[in-house]
Amino acid sequence: MLTHLAIFALVAVSISGQPLQGRSQKTELLVAVGILEEQVQDVKQKVIALPNSGALCPYPYKQVLDECFYLSKVKLNWNQARQYCQGMQGDLATPRNVYALKSFVIDTAAEVTEAWLGATDQSSEGTWNWLDGRPVASDWAGGQPDDAGGNEDCLDLRTKWHPTLNDYQCGVAQHFVCQYNA
Ligand SMILES: [Ca+2]
Ligand SMILES: [Ca+2]
């Protein structure tokens, strides 16, 4: 605070035309401007680092990085889960950061060890795309997707597995993650 006052005093004296001791008036002002610019940058960084006010994610969604998720309390099959999410202005989750979502699921309900996400190969066996069109290119658990029994066409997250993604039977009722898309 003293630093601020000293700078403002310096600037005020300079503007008023009073001579400054030591270095020239111009040099003193340039130094003062430099210090002010540094402090503006410092304040900007602090504002950027402030937590989001929560406006990004409407209830009952929660913010995870820059996305909004909801972990269900009920268990439904994949198609029912998708309807449920669409009924809350979202869809099954298509996270850009799978491990951030995984942390969210573990933190929210440690007892939930598998949850439906928004990807399926029902339209073309073996071709895995998120509902937003991106390929499911990474984060598959070892040996997955394996289409076990020729009947695994929906994507779920396994919190106890690493890597964490698995194809599973779409008809199984389990927890799911919805994502709000503004
Ligand atoms: Ca399959
Ligand atoms: Ca599988």
Automatic annotation (TrEMBL):
<dbReference type="Pfam" id="PF00059">
    <property type="entry name" value="Lectin_C"/>
</dbReference>
<dbReference type="InterPro" id="IPR016187">
    <property type="entry name" value="CTDL_fold"/>
</dbReference>
<dbReference type="InterPro" id="IPR050111">
    <property type="entry name" value="C-type_lectin/snaclec_domain"/>
</dbReference>
<dbReference type="InterPro" id="IPR016186">
    <property type="entry name" value="C-type_lectin-like/link_sf"/>
</dbReference>
<protein>
    <submittedName>
        <fullName>C-type lectin</fullName>
    </submittedName>
</protein>
<feature type="signal peptide">
    <location>
        <begin position="1"/>
        <end position="17"/>
    </location>
</feature>
<feature type="domain" description="C-type lectin">
    <location>
        <begin position="64"/>
        <end position="179"/>
    </location>
</feature>
<dbReference type="InterPro" id="IPR018378">
    <property type="entry name" value="C-type_lectin_CS"/>
</dbReference>
<keyword id="KW-0732">Signal</keyword>
<keyword id="KW-1015">Disulfide bond</keyword>
<dbReference type="GO" id="GO:0030246">
    <property type="term" value="F:carbohydrate binding"/>
</dbReference>
<dbReference type="InterPro" id="IPR001304">
    <property type="entry name" value="C-type_lectin-like"/>
</dbReference>
<keyword id="KW-0430">Lectin</keyword>
